[in-house]
Amino acid sequence: MTAQAAQNLAELAGVHVVHKARSGGLFTRDRVYALTGADLSIGSGETVGVVGESGCGKSTLAKVLVGLQKPTSGTVSFGGQDIWSMSNSARRRAIGSSTGMVFQDPSTALNRRLPIRQVLRDPLDVHAVGTVREREERVRELLGLVGLPASVADLLPGQVSGGQRQRVAIGRALALRPRLLIADEPTSALDVSVRAQILNLLLDLKEQLGLAMVFVSHDIQTVRRMSDRVVTMYLGRIVEQTQAEAVPARARHPYTRALFSATPGLLSPVDPIPLTGPVPSATRPPSGCPFRTRCWKADDLCAEEMPAARSEGEDHLFRCHHPVLDGVTDVELISQAQERQ
Ligand SMILES: Nc1ncnc2c1ncn2[C@@H]1O[C@H](COP(=O)(O)OP(=O)(O)OP(=O)(O)O)[C@@H](O)[C@H]1O
């Protein structure tokens, strides 16, 4: 184990997740390549935002990072320890003390029949943390931490608002004091009016507890605001990782540029960079670069070879044979893309 690997809270190395495809509820012979060759490290206290179109593998990546999805191959390490080589009980302990997960919809993520007190106590009971009195005290602490009054403890999750329910879910994810929180679309099921409150709560908790966070969202502006580093995914692959402040202007991957150009106001384009055709199926990814069927820069090389990871400076990695050059504006990229159509 390298010193760097031990410092990282979580590390994925060459992780693949392949599912059996289903049709009409039955398994077929096809395979779904949900995650392909993912390499990613999460350092202490940093927030990594994950962006990409629907079905590109964001939730799979999140589930792998919290031990809910076993990789088909590759390694997932917490604090330098490969969690899938551990016994089941050691893995449960390692996961519980390392990471917590907040899902999109707190209405389905929480047990509706348990009072909030018990929802928050559950992880403490399962992991036999402290005495009963200490667990009760921790429940009170958690309510305060997520900004809920003690009076909600006896209510059921269905008796509080959606925003309060998501606060309970965040409290539950933090019960075992993990150092990494995985938030998968934590605000998309909430009313627009409470979204900012939940995002601010996550930022406060990060500050207060020194948490690292993986923040998955379709909302690119929010990812950029919340994150230190941005990871772009396309068809199960991580195609770019870079500092949040470098996107979109210094992003090298044409897909990152196209994705961010669809967000008005970032580089002030008139229209998004046009992409040709639909996202290919995750059961039949194209040869070579997965993005090449929609990319205006693609040539024969892109069809033949998956681009190797290229680095630029310490924090910037991308996989592209024909990266966007420095200083090229979205307006120029739009006209290049239009010429190819
Ligand atoms: N249990 C499963 N069985 C079969 N295919 C699956 C399973 N889970 C995910 N997939 C497929 O794997 C691919 C990646 O799914 P995933 O949910 O990770 O994408 P996503 O980027 O989070 O999508 P969204 O933004 O819509 O939530 C998709 O093609 C999805 O249909």
From TrEMBL:
It comes from Actinomadura alba. SMART domains: AAA (SM00382). Keywords: ATP-binding, Nucleotide-binding, Transport. Belongs to the ABC transporter superfamily. Residues 15-260 form the ABC transporter domain. The keyword Nucleotide-binding applies. The keyword Transport applies. CDD domains: ABC_NikE_OppD_transporters. Pfam families: ABC_tran, oligo_HPY. The lineage of its organism: Bacteria, Bacillati, Actinomycetota, Actinomycetes, Streptosporangiales. InterPro entries: AAA+_ATPase (IPR003593), ABC_transp_ATP-bind (IPR050319), ABC_transporter-like_ATP-bd (IPR003439), ABC_transporter-like_CS (IPR017871), Oligopep_ABC_C (IPR013563), P-loop_NTPase (IPR027417). GO terms for molecular function: ATP binding. Gene3D superfamilies: P-loop containing nucleotide triphosphate hydrolases. This is ABC transporter ATP-binding protein.
